[in-house]
Design goal:
- The chain has 71 residues and is mainly alpha-helical.
- The chain has one domain.
- The chain contains 4 helices and no strands.
- It starts with a helix and ends with a helix.
Length: 71
């Protein structure tokens, strides 16, 4: 019974929810988006960008420290 319910749910999702997905963001539509629209659709939150920068800076310092210790 569980397998049947899982299969029915999967088929409904694939047939009704995912069927039109490839036509939502066609290359022509995306090319026509403004910078603000692109940022809203595909951009990252400010806190995520800040966290990545902080971690990248930390990684660079740690790599430099490792290189200094190997000398």
């Amino acid at each position: 019974m569980k397998t049947f319910v899982d299969n029915v749910c999967r088929q409904v999702i694939e047939r009704h929810l995912l069927r039109g997905l490839p036509t939502i963001f066609t290359p022509q539509d995306v090319a026509g988006f403004t910078d603000e629209e692109l940022s809203r659709v595909a951009g990252e939150r400010f806190d995520v960008v800040a966290k990545r920068k902080h971690l990248s800076d930390q990684l660079a310092m740690l790599k430099q420290g490792l290189n200094d210790l190997r000398k």
